[in-house]
Amino acid sequence: MPKSLNKKAELNVIYIVLDDVGYSALGCYGSEIETPYINSLAENGLRYNNFTVTPLCSPTRACLLTGRNCHSVGVGMISDIDWGPEYPNKRGRISNSAATLAEILKSNGMATYMVGKWHLVPGHEAASSGPFGNWPLSKGFERYYGFLIAKTDQYTPDLVYDNHRVQKPEKSNYHLSEDLVDKSLEFLTDHLSVTPDRPFFLYLAFGAMHEPHQVPKEYIEKYKGVYDKGWDHIREERFKRQKKMEIIPSKTELVERNPGIKSWDDLTSKEKKLFIKFQETYSGFLTHTDQQIGRLLNFLKLKNKLEDTIIVLLSDNGGSQEGGWNGSINDSAHFNGIEESVNEMYEHLEEIGGHLTSPNYPKGWSQVSNTPFKYYKQNTFFGGTHVPLIIQCPQRISDPGSIRSQFYHAIDITPTILDLLQIEAPSIYDGVTQMPLHGVSMLNTFTESQAPSKRKTQYFEMLGHRAIWQDGWVAVTYHERGVPFEEDHWELYQVDQDFSQKYNLAEKYPKKLKELQQIWWEEAMKYDVLPLNDNPYRKGYFGLQEGRTTFIFYPGMAHLPSTAAPIITRSSYSISIPIFRSNPAEQGVLIAHGNHSSGYSLYIKDNYLFYEYNYVGTVYHLQSSVQVPIGNSTIEFHFKRGQGTSGMGSLSINGKLVGKLLMPRTLPFVISVEGMDIGRDRLSAVSANYPVPEFPFSGQIKKAVIELYREFKREICININGTIQYL
User: How many domains is the chain built from?
Assistant: First the structure.
């Protein structure tokens, strides 16, 4: 029998958030992927099979941490850009009128720690100069270690410790997931050693399973041969396993393949081999993540804290469609709309999962991840919104190992925790009147398996995709961009009877559909979903970039994320760097922006000046015709834009032209997902032509000046994947 709570805040709380993990991806939800430690949470806790989130990462995280709907708190989209005052529902940060769980628990005496992905700060505020008001330490967490924006490389991450950037630990075979758990254990060890009687809240948000899918080779090889049968067969196997587990209702039917996904039998041999490798890598990455969760669980058990800790594990949205039809090994290609051919990717087959690729699996495997549902992350069908939720709470759960089928949403988790800890959400926090919680407590489901859901209605919206759930019915639309919202084709499902949304009842029950559509609009008004906008390339405010054409950076500056770096795409520009060399041996990187996928680097090696530009694997290489002089000199690179994205690059030393290069294609939108450095190349190297790590310049750099020359007025915009660009 569960223990009873007899005092306030007796329990510790841990949130574990996985990224882009679809409904069926975990072993305890029907997958063949080995997740024994996550499965152990299910065996000792509860699995919820009717739990939903928003179909995108930042909004779900805002819902989870505040207990309010994402649009209401200003995070209706990914947080990378502030859409401006005309869209208060998409300002990229949590409103001060919605205190986070960390803020509430800290004010009630609990220690609060966060490790991992934040993604609740506008991109231009992710620079090391701040402002810091939307960083974790300003949102209730007392210690933080992780990465601030949507994604980072698992081998060379852009790490932040509290309010400053740090280099990754000097460790052989480094991997971010391992590092995040190392830091979690460090925080908890400090806590338990000195303040063992003070309860704690740990928010652990992995980068896994967001791309890049990167993991040690032995984990990939663990799944050799498992996926040779293909995605159609694997999806059917998962579906059958789900029924046997009773994680889906017995009457559920498997939906058809999503539009555009080919039958596995229709693929070429080369496609099959490539796509198998992508899924082997994904599965190995997930198993590796599970092992890190196991390290945390074993620590808690060893410290006699497992019985006193409520653990909540969930995914932020369904499986991602961002790998496209063929998958991807170069995230810069994806973000720039550049198609990667199967033949090109196949040449790098054995590199997938390693340091020099940024893999993401194709849509066919994404639908497998979302079995038994249709569509994906970003869509408001169940494939985007239905995710695993596991809660372990030994003090309260009466029948561990059971399944709960009540419909709930991410906004309901934090109210449940507050209910469990007997803590009330404040009406005023830090002098700011608070909006009421939108979520409701799920606590009664811990002991009452058949208790009706307290949630009766829930809306969903993502760039015009919309849905409304009410009492077992769902109205949903797949919105086509540019189509007037009032002309959207809505579908109707009785999901209490049709769990997978297979049978559209819109024609059979038109009155019911109309009723639900009206309710959607009412909810949209109530929770600040309006105004709607379906344009993924939306003008917004971009801080550092706003209205500026001249940028001066100094040596010693911390790594600058791409979301805060000058945008040189589709523009003429110049880079000017005054330097001093005391002898011919002084060399190194002067400026670098990017990584192995794409970017540019200006450096001195063997006494010559070099410029390299990586266009998603095609490298433009320019070497100076003369050596760089000893003493003071000014290094310059100029790019004169031509037609489209072409242009002419030129190198100069002290005003004298020393090299010229035609660049037929440059990146149209995103230089790189990795940021910029002055005087070194800190993370993943842009160029393979110099030694790593960093290749720091051993002479003196006075400053680096970037000047942008705008041929025409352009607007700063953002697309659905979080990439910032000009139009």
Answer: 3
